[in-house]
Amino acid sequence: MRDYKVVVLGAGGVGKSSITVQFVQGVYVESYDPTIEDSYRKQTDIDGRACDLEILDTAGVAQFVAMRELYIKSGKGFLLVYSVTDENSLKELLELRELVLRIKDSTNVPMVLIGNKCDLENDRVLSIEDGVKVSQDWGLVPFYETSAMYKTNVDEAFTDVVRQIMRKEAVTNAEKKQQKELQKQKELESQQNQHSQQQSSSSGTNSNINSNGYDHGSPVLNARLKQSINDPSKTVTKSKCCTIM
Prior knowledge:
Layout: E1 2-10, H1 16-25, E2 37-46, E3 49-58, H2 65-74, E4 77-83, H3 87-104, E5 111-116, H4 128-137, E6 143-146, H5 154-206, H6 219-230
């Protein structure tokens, strides 16, 4: 079973805790209690794979910004939540996304955009089109309008971000495997080149040795041969036969 850490980010009062509790426990929490930080765990099956999700519900108030940055560093996927009844909550989300990209030092971060409280039609100030535009500006980040009260699109949003994490891990593992194979291939080629060089060197040495076992390429032997030729005393002559009359 794989572990996946998901971080829920957004301004205070947008319903981060309500969404998280609805997904984990299937319960709607109506009252608003400012969160410092809550952690939840949920085991689920996504696309036939058993997953153990650790969901971090972060604070939406300014005094906990330093803690929020620590959560972002450890997170693998992010749910960025605003309220369709609060225009400022969407503006704050734009800054949060930039913070996530900066801390993760990547533009490819598993992420879902959520417009919560879509059941409050009479209080709505942000349209679906507003969320779609932000999604497009972010490079077609998946966008859902949710209702924590009726559990509308809540499961879908969490499932989406986990799928993104899975795909990113699959790509990363494939790249690592390819790099290892390339490294092995380079090492094998290097060993083959060294072997070829050794064979070439050995062949060059043997070419200086004649069939009698003498190395014509030896400077010492050449010097001795020259000395033998120039010194008559060391030259072997044929013996003369005497005939007795």
